[in-house]
Amino acid sequence: MNPGIGKYLIGIGAVILLAGLVVYFLGDKLHWLGRLPGDIRVEGKNGGFYFPIVTCIVVSLVLNLIIVLIRKFFG
């Protein structure tokens, strides 16, 4: 097995651990996540539709930054 894969697995595990710690300790302070301006919400009397497009963009940018940092330090 390639030793480089081990570095990526360690990095991914560290990111998952960090995300878990953030959610565990700061979960009550992250109530704004999913309710950003620009998220699409349509509600009718029989149901509704919700698409958090701006939240998806923010999460994507943060994840890309994390991946770039992992590649820089572990790659």
Write a structural description.
The protein has 75 residues and is mainly α. 61% of the residues lie in helices and 11% in strands. It contains two helices and two strands; from the N terminus they run αββα. A two-stranded antiparallel sheet has the order 1-2. A hairpin with a 4-residue loop joins strand 1 (40-43) and strand 2. 0% of the residues are buried.
Main features:
75 residues; mainly alpha; two-stranded antiparallel ribbon; 2 helices
Layout of strands and helices, then pairs:
Elements lengths: L2 H24 L13 E4 L4 E4 L1 H22 L1
Antiparallel strand pairs: 1-2
Pfam families: DUF2905
Organism: Larkinella bovis
Protein name: DUF2905 domain-containing protein
Which band does the percent of strand residues land in? Answer: 5-15%
Structural class: mainly alpha
Task: Give me the strand/helix succession.
Answer: HEEH
**Biggest β-sheet strands, sense, barrel:** 2 strands, antiparallel
* Rounded Rg: 17 Å
The unreliable regions are none
H/I helix tally: 2
How much is the average pLDDT?
Answer: 87
Helical amount: 55-70%
Characterize this entry briefly.
By secondary structure, the protein is mainly alpha-helical. It has 2 helices and 2 strands; from the N terminus they run αββα.
